[in-house]
């Protein structure tokens, strides 16, 4: 049945509006902290001039200004050495005005990313990607410390909850095995507070459709434009489009962002997150939430 015949179209998981509401809540919490003399500060380490990375980092600083978080930039040239990058990390570790920070990924070729990420003070890790914090997530350590959670997984769950969708007992099929989303989201979803059942698939999965067709929720984070087509989705399922791939439009020669979810999915799914306007703004909002959470924890 086509949309023209009146088939129900999926409802929208509106990340832009949800992130806006979250930012308003965070602004209030920041105001309370500031009254107590505590100013949260987010730092960014950006290496090189990749247009995508520059745009993301710029967006993060605008977000900070909106909610009252101070921001600190370490912008390094494309030919920065491993030592230059490590020195920038050490400066942010030592700077009391910086309460949390991120190293924008990917770093240029030839840089040992894991070595850089391990140097980040785990207490200032706003991305939740430091081995200590990922390890605490695996080990389910929540006391006496609360570690930052990876921003995109936290944002996906928050987006669902704020649309009235709970996950207990549901089958979530994750497509993609990257560290920031695929590998870490299952650790969050299988916590007792969410209680989902999780299948992790990836581009090496033999029969992807066999898995995704059984999903109540599909998290599409493979970075393969359009990999999730309507025939892979059970009618009434919930689909989150996490992929961000820059593609050159054959016709116009302009670059645009392509998600992992084919537009036809909206004809079968009950809920779809748009891309842009879905998981991206939520990721940014959760970065701010991690900074405010840790500033509150540090303030006691
Ligand atoms: N250390 C680190 N942490 C990250 O969180 C991180 C990273 N490195 N490297 C790259 C990816 C990608 N990422 C996005 C965040 C927001 C949008 C976003 O807000 N996008 C807008 C559209 C933006 C546009 O149109 O250019 C939207 O979806 O509506 C997109 C992508 C964070 N990442």
UniProtKB/TrEMBL annotation:
Residues annotated as binding NADP(+): 176-178, 244
GO CC terms: cytosol
EC code(s) of this entry: 1.5.1.5, 3.5.4.9
GO terms (BP aspect): L-histidine biosynthetic process; methionine biosynthetic process; purine nucleotide biosynthetic process; tetrahydrofolate interconversion
Keywords recorded for this protein, A-Z: Amino-acid biosynthesis, Histidine biosynthesis, Hydrolase, Methionine biosynthesis, Multifunctional enzyme, NADP, One-carbon metabolism, Oxidoreductase, Purine biosynthesis
Record bears the keyword Ligase: no
Domain of life according to the entry: Bacteria
Gene Ontology terms for molecular function: methenyltetrahydrofolate cyclohydrolase activity; methylenetetrahydrofolate dehydrogenase (NADP+) activity
Subunit record text: Homodimer.
Record-given protein name: Bifunctional protein FolD
């Amino acid at each position: 049945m086509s949309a023209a015949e009146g088939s129900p179209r999926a409802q929208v998981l509106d990340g832009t509006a949800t992130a806006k509401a979250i930012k308003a809540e965070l602004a209030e919490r920041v105001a309370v902290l500031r009254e107590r003399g505590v100013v949260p500060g987010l730092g960014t380490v950006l290496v090189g001039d990749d247009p995508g990375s520059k745009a993301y980092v710029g967006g993060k600083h605008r977000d900070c200004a909106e909610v009252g978080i101070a921001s600190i930039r370490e912008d390094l040239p494309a030919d920065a050495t491993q030592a230059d990058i490590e020195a920038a990390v050490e400066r942010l570790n030592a700077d009391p005005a910086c309460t949390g920070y991120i190293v924008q990924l990917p770093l240029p070729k030839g840089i040992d990313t894991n070595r850089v990420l391990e140097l980040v003070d785990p207490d200032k890790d706003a991305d939740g990607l430091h081995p200590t914090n990922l390890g605490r997530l695996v080990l389910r350590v929540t006391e006496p410390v609360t570690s930052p959670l990876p921003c995109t997984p936290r944002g996906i769950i928050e987006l669902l909850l704020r649309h009235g969708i709970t996950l207990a007992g549901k089958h979530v099929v994750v497509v993609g095995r990257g560290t920031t989303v695929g590998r870490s989201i299952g650790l969050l979803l299988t916590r007792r507070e969410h209680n989902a059942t999780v299948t992790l698939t990836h581009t090496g999965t033999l029969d992807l459709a066999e898995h995704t067709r059984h999903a109540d929720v599909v998290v599409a984070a493979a970075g393969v434009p359009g990999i999730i087509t309507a025939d892979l989705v059970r009618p009434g399922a919930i689909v989150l489009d996490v992929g961000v791939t820059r593609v050159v439009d054959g016709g116009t020669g302009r670059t645009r962002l392509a998600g992992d979810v084919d537009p036809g999915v909206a004809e079968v799914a009950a809920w779809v997150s748009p891309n842009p306007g879905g998981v991206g703004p939520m990721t940014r909002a959760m970065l701010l939430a991690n900074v405010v959470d840790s500033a509150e924890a540090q303030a006691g």
